[in-house]
Backbone:
């Protein structure tokens, strides 16, 4: 068996590091070598046209889509996908370990419809992390309070509005105590009047010091919360910097075009 | 792939545990604690009065042949185990070593003599032609050319009819044949004069009558063993002793008021035998035993087979979904074989076919094995499509909260798939319940077989089978209401 035991790089202040991530779906080369780093407690926003690969980056970070090449490191767990065996116990174990470092919020929430709000939040801590029920319940109730849904704990997802469902999705991700929270277009599927409540919850998290990586089309919101913005197109990072740099004063033509289209659609 | 394999191994293991443990409690062999007499399994119809039938009051297997073989066993020092099956399956069962001897008025003929170990004659009788009352023009064998005779196809009576140029309408026993003749769906039947007299006497039927003798030859009935079985000699010795000490005569006179164990025995008289009963009395007598078979055979076999079948179905479904070439292929072939072949054929293969390659399972085990495999094949596609109906996002969400394969299936996928799967699976369960009525062919006495026993003692086919239908319907009705409640429960998390 190949020894794929990895020595995680000393991360210092860094929380997330991606090196040379490549991913193809069939002939479609979606990611063509992505590098980026995110410091602890910061917010990284990925923007770009659809098909640019931003969602795939997010899904690579917790291996919902397994990178073909490159290394992903979150906190002290690093996996080099270039050398990781395609299957087998070692690969599964490594992936599970990496995955445990992040929490994911989906565009379409993906709540478990057959479980109540509270049960949705508890599923990870109790069933997977095997934490004591009482402690987990207390924490889950705190999280629901934080996202403003204490009163809905015993309802089923179908009884909630889209914004409420997404807030439960956020609570479910946070309950895992992840080292980084990944948001995949968390407001794209919502009615416009429900977007605000979800963004405000995310903003609270950022303020509280959670490390987040966010894919969004809400440029104005990105501008407010992002410590770092990556503009992607065609599977590469075209431009990166602070939000003031990338959104306020873009240098690349493709970035300018994209921002013009999205900020001034008419 | 590893997961699918694990489940496959698990389910196969479960199947075997189920097959070994469960029938143990249900086996019909009565085994006294300390009895080292050799066991001899006796094949008999149980639907051929007055030779082999179930007493209308006690429901116990009895009859002339049953008493004779019991007397033989007593002399020879055997312990008997009765296996009831249709006559047409009886020689197959003998060859497949499912039984050791046939005690069912096996008529001596040259073909059988060449093939089996036949004993000394214990019944002399002659064939008669039975027709619908008032039929003209059928008196002797010469008259039946081109007519339709209702017969169990492998009996010597069927041979007689065939040789005389009659077409054979296949039936499963005397009373069924009589029913067809009475209904005009067959022109005649040929059978033993004693059986015919008994039928007329027991049913009080005036709708059929004996038209005449089927030839002049006396036929001789014997016990049939496999060739080379040493127990043949033991039974011949015992029969000789029974003849000598008058036991055989006594048994014969009890049933026929004549000694049919010697040639030229005079006229058998069955008027003192079992009394004719009204249809309502027939149904009343049969209701209890039929209910009992529903409860101790039909329902448990259904439940056990369904449970094992579901595990197989899940394994096959996961095998197909896994995308792994080998497991997906195995699952595909399994599903295709089960769905592409009749259940009856599957039952025959398991019960009569497997012993030829050294796999001999008890009737219950065979029944459960065949039914489980059948359910598994049918339910696999239902389970597969139900699993596929769960959105991909659910699998993804489960893995982001850290769940493994099994945990995801158990906690997230199956509860949601159940919603989709319950209605079609209920259909499968209901079909299975009714399919158990085929088990009579593998000698499992369940509800339908019990109804056949009762019908063999009477001509009350309509009320008896209506009663059987009613029993099935009641259970299916119960299942449907359970299904309804289950669906409501599973739908509680869905917007209405």
Residues:
């Amino acid at each position: 068996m190949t020894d794929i035991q990895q020595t995680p790089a000393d991360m210092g202040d860094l929380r997330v590091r991606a090196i040379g991530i490549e991913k193809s779906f069939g002939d479609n080369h979606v990611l063509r070598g992505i590098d980026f780093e995110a410091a602890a407690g910061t917010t990284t926003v990925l923007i770009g046209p659809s098909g640019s690969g931003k969602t795939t980056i997010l899904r690579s970070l917790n291996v919902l889509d397994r990178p073909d090449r490159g290394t992903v490191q979150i906190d002290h767990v690093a996996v080099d996908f270039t050398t990781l065996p395609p299957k087998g116990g070692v690969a599964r174990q490594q992936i599970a370990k990496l995955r445990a470092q992040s929490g994911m919020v989906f565009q379409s929430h993906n709540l478990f419809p057959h479980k109540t709000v509270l049960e949705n939040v508890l599923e990870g801590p109790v069933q997977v992390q095997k934490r004591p029920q009482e402690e987990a319940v207390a924490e889950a109730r705190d999280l629901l309070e934080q996202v403003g849904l204490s009163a809905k704990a015993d309802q089923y997802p179908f009884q909630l509005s889209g914004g409420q469902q997404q807030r439960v999705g956020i609570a479910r991700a946070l309950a895992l105590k992840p080292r980084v929270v990944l948001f995949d277009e968390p407001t794209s599927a919502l009615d416009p009047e429900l977007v605000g409540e979800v963004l405000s919850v995310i903003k609270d998290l950022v303020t509280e010091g959670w490390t987040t990586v966010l894919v969004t089309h809400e440029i104005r919101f990105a501008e407010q919360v992002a410590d770092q913005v990556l503009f992607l197109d065609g599977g590469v990072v075209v431009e990166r910097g602070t939000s003031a740099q990338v959104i306020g004063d873009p240098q690349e033509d493709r970035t300018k075009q994209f921002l013009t289209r999205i900020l001034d659609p008419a | 792939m590893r997961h699918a394999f694990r489940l496959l191994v698990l389910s196969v293991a479960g199947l075997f545990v189920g097959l070994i443990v469960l029938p143990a409690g249900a086996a019909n062999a009565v085994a006294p604690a300390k009895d080292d007499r050799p066991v001899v399994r006796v094949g008999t119809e149980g639907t051929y009065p007055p030779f082999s039938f179930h007493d209308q009051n006690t429901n116990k297997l009895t009859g002339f042949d049953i008493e004779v073989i019991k007397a033989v066993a007593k002399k020879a020092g055997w312990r008997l185990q009765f296996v009831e099956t249709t006559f047409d399956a009886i020689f197959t069962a003998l060859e497949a070593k499912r039984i050791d001897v046939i005690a069912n008025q096996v008529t001596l003929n040259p073909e059988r003599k060449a093939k089996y170990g036949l004993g000394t004659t214990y019944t002399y009788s002659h064939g008669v032609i039975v027709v619908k009352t008032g039929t003209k023009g059928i008196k002797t064998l010469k008259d039946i050319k081109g007519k339709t005779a209702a017969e169990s196809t492998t009996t010597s009576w069927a041979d007689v009819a065939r040789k005389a140029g009659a077409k054979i309408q296949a039936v499963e026993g005397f009373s069924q044949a009589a029913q067809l003749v009475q209904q005009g769906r067959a022109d005649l039947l040929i059978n033993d004069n004693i059986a015919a007299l008994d039928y007329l006497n027991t049913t009080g039927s005036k709708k059929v009558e004996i038209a005449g003798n089927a030839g002049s030859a006396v036929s001789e009935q014997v016990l049939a063993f496999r060739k080379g079985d040493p127990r043949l000699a033991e039974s011949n010795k015992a029969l000789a002793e029974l003849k000598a000490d008058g036991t055989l005569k006594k048994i014969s006179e009890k049933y026929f008021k004549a000694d049919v164990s010697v040639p030229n025995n005079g006229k058998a008289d069955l008027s003192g035998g079992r009394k004719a009963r009204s249809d309502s009395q027939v149904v009343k007598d049969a209701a209890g035993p039929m209910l009992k078979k529903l409860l101790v055979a039909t329902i448990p076999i259904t439940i056990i087979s369904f449970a094992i079948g579901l595990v197989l179905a899940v394994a096959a479904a996961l095998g197909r979904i896994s995308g792994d070439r080998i497991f997906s292929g195995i699952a595909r072939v399994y599903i295709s074989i089960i769905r592409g072949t009749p259940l009856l054929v599957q039952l025959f293969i398991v019960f009569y076919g497997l012993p030829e390659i050294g796999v001999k399972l008890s009737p219950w085990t065979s029944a459960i094995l065949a039914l489980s495999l059948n359910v598994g094949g049918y339910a696999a596609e239902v389970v597969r499509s139900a699993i596929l109906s769960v959105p991909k996002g659910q699998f993804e969400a489960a893995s982001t909260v850290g769940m493994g394969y099994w945990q995801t299936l158990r906690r997230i996928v199956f509860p949601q798939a159940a919603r989709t799967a319950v209605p079609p699976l209920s259909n499968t369960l209901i079909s299975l319940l009714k399919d158990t009525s085929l088990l009579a062919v593998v000698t499992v006495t369940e509800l339908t077989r019990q109804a056949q026993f009762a019908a063999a003692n009477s001509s009350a086919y309509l009320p008896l089978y209506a009663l059987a239908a009613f029993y099935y319907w009641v259970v299916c009705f119960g299942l449907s209401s359970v299904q309804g409640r289950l669906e409501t429960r599973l739908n509680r998390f869905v917007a209405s």
In short: The interface with chain A takes residues 391, 393-394, 396-404, 407, 411-412, 415-416, 492-495 of chain B (CB under 8 Å).
